[in-house]
Amino acid sequence: MLFQIYGENAGFQLLGWALVFVGLIAANELARRSKKGGIFFFLALPAALTVYFIAIYAGAAMGAEWALNNPTYTHMNSWFHYAKLYAATAGCIGFMMLKYKWSIGKTQWFKVFPFVIVAINILIAVGSDFESGIRGAMALAETGDRWWLSSENVWLYGGWWNWVNGIAGILNILCMTGWWGIYSSKKHDDMLWPDMTWLFIIAYDLWNFEYTYNNLPTHAWYCGLALLLAPTFANALWNKGGWIQNRANTLALWCMFAQVFPLFQDASVFTTIPVLYADGFMDAAVRPSAADPTMQGVVAILALAANVIVLAVIIKRSLAQKKNPYTGEIFTDTRDFQLAMARAEGK
């Protein structure tokens, strides 16, 4: 088992997961199906939230109690959360420029933007994984165990699994093929990346879940499982080729929600922690006395293995087809690719 789901709150934990999963799918559909929806979710809303965030930190700097006690300030103050929110939002805006052919979205060279922004997002997470691995080693040398307290008052357990998963993340960047094969759908509701097939999606999902499990353990039930499965579900059933757009949209939307309402995950009946916390709870004021990192190690190895296998498939296919897998598309004979291309404009 990955998470501690039992007792009187188990029903709320499952309900919370379902609400997040369905809510993200619904919000993504609203955002992708119209220009107005996309503009609201990824331009107007982030602008308003930026003003809100600045006001909170300005208030905190002046010692205002409302700011110092604001959940966003007390629970979501690490560099990672802000970097992820704005990087994901930048991706959403860029993807809209491509699918609607706004400004530089009409140019050939801008088609490489999806690869660049996804690579940046992956590297942000890899950096965080390596940081946890280093801090875990430092804690082991200083205290005899691997627990270290993050800036958001969450006890993390850093170890070799962070390094293994960080390497998997770097390999995952190399698993993105057909950088220039970006298309707009016939209805202009999706930016399509047909060469990003189920092979990459599985490798990415395993790596990213392990990232959240290692570094955002008290949030992983939602930002790991629910958030990752929402775009994968949509891609599998009705939005073939649109996975990366689905992923960026749902990630940005979730980051906005989590940044403003962190207590949903951190201190409510919906709170769900992983089996890592063998004491059965996570309290910043109490250093954990026991840990069960078994699943951290298992999933890290699975993530690394998946990315090695996918990269090996890419190398084999590129050699057989005598193509550069990054400037050319190498999955053109697969069902996923063909279904996505059937949705592309002018195809």
TL;DR?
The chain is an all-alpha fold.
Features:
single chain, 347 residues, mainly alpha, two-stranded antiparallel sheet, two-stranded antiparallel ribbon, 13 helices, globular
Describe this structure in words.
Helix content is 64%, strand content 3%. The chain is mostly helical and 347 residues long. The protein has one domain. The protein has a two-stranded antiparallel sheet with strand order 1-2. Strands 3-4 form a two-stranded antiparallel ribbon. α1 crosses α9 and α7 packs antiparallel against α8. The radius of gyration is 20 Å and the shape is globular. The termini are far apart. The model has no long low-confidence stretch (mean pLDDT 95).
| Spatial extent as radius of gyration | 20 Å
- Report the mean per-residue pLDDT as an integer: 95
Major sheet, described briefly? 2 strands, antiparallel
Q: In angstroms, what separates the terminal alpha carbons? A: 45 Å
Morphology call: globular
Main β-sheet, spatial strand arrangement: 1-2
Structural class: mainly alpha
Q: Which regions have little confidence, pLDDT < 50, spanning 5+ residues?
A: none
What number of structural domains do the residues give? 1
Number of helices: 13
Strand coverage percent: under 5%
Number of strands: 4
Helix share of residues?
55-70%
| Secondary-structure element string | HHHHHHEEHEEHHHHHH
Keywords: Membrane, Transmembrane, Transmembrane helix
Protein name: Membrane protein
Organism: Ruthenibacterium lactatiformans
Pfam family, one: DUF5692
